Structures are given as C-alpha cells and as structure tokens.
Amino acid sequence: MQVDAVVLDIDGVLVDVADSYRRAIIESVEQVCDKTIDRDAVQSFKDAGGFNNDWELTDAAALYVLARREGLKMNVETFTDRVAEGGGGLDAAKEVVGDLPRVAQARVRDQWDTDRLRETFQALYLGEDLYRELEGGAPPLSAPGYIHDEPTLVDSETIADLTDRFDVAVLTGRPAAEAEIALERVGLDVPEDHRFTMDDWEEGKPHPRALVELAERFDAERVAFAGDTLDDVRTARNADDEDATRVYYGIGVLTGGLTGDEGRRKYTEIGADAVIEDVNDLVELLE
C-alpha cells in the first residue's frame, strides 16, 4: 500500500484502553445508576457508530440502563442496533428511548445526570492528582487513576520507521491533555498542527473533516488511517468520498475492542482496505 502520510488513532492502536477508558465507562454507570453494562455491550455501542467520545458513550449506556429500569423491553444488542439504524451516537440513543411512554421517559430524564457521569468518569480515569490538575477542582471520589493502566501497543522501532518514511499525524477522540499523556508514554512526537483531538473539532468520527484537513496540511496524495473501531474505517471511507483529489485508506487494527476473526469480518464488511493484527504491522504494509 503506497502512501505519503499515516494518521493514527491512539486508543486501541498506540495504547491499550481496555482497563482504562472502557473500565471507566462501565464503573461510572455503576456508580451513578447502581447498575451497568458489560464490556461486550460497550463494544456494541462502539459498533453502532457515533461514539468516538467516551463521555457520550457513558451517557448513552446510562440512558439504556435507566430506560430498562423504567420498562424498555430491549436487550443491549437490539438497543444498539436501533441506535445504528438511527445514525449512531447519543441523539439516536435518545430517540430509541422514545419508545417508552412519556411518563416513563420523564422519569428517565430526571434520573439521567450527565454532569455527574462525566465527573465520575474523569475521577476514575485520571485519579485524584491528575483530576485536580486537568479538571481544576476536587474529584467526586478517590481513585488511583486508570490512565496509569494503559500498556503501550506500539514498538519504538515502529515509531522510528513510520516517522522516518512518512508524515505522521494523530486523530483521536481524547481530550488534548490526555492525548499528550499517551503520546509521551509511547514516545511519539507529533506537532500540534498534526493532531486532531476532541478539543479541535465538534463533528467527531466518522465525519471526514479532520482527516481531510490533515491530508491538506501534509499536501499528501495518499493517506492511510489506522484505527481500532468501525468508525475509524468509516472516517477514511467518508474522506475518500468527499475529497476527490486524494486517496484515503482505512486500516482496521485488531488490538482494540474488535479482535480475531469476528473483528476482521466486521472491518471487511464496512470496506476496510486492510486489517492488521497490531499497529506494528504497518511497517510491512505501507510503502
């Protein structure tokens, strides 16, 4: 695969977030709603699309748990299928909850505390010290910080090879400060104008704007985007549709929530140009 530039997601590609972000989703919902979803359900929300922002996925998971409590007769697979049919994301989740009677919907809204969910999520993920530093206040609970439980997935040799041969950028749903922590951990030095984080754009994946803009900044003709979710591949497909002057390749990486033969099948079905076991396989894939 011949390319001029490589764009990398962070979570599930450069660092393993199974015991950090995804754990924070599950435990935040448990803390606030007294019931939660499991890891497979988190992946179902991811597959539905529109949940590049884990705060919004947490909100949607809490909405589902509360709606079930008020009588919604759907398992999580049916719920997330409906979310996908509605275009994905939190707005689609709200629409599905509209199946409840109005009185039940009102009870769900009254219990759905998105501010508390976010504060809890950040406290669990960051831990006390980083919470005070980045959020600017006292955390609502004491936690060591799951951010410290993010093993690196990329080898230093891979970083050296990619940065030597290609222009390299990062496109992530992390806030900028948390992206910086992850990049420092893996040893990838990316200038600010070669990054798109949660703080840099409103649309989020799979909207193509960020990927197209990165390609423009590099003046690249052929761009590879490697990510660990279906929305990452959709982002590349959408960029390829929108920007007729360039070629965009979507590469699925099997070190996030999508793994094994099932993950490979899902990536292939939505049009991935390649599926790799981990990010280090880019060295041989790309020319």
TrEMBL record:
CDD domains assigned: HAD_like
Superkingdom, taxonomy of origin: Archaea
GO molecular function: phosphoglycolate phosphatase activity
Gene3D superfamilies, A to Z: HAD superfamily/HAD-like (3.40.50.1000)
InterPro entries named in the record: HAD-like_hydrolase_sf, HAD-like_sf, HAD-SF_hydro_IA, HAD-SF_TIGR01548, HAD_sf
Biological process, per Gene Ontology: DNA repair
Keywords: Hydrolase
Family: Belongs to the HAD-like hydrolase superfamily.
Protein name, per record: HAD family hydrolase
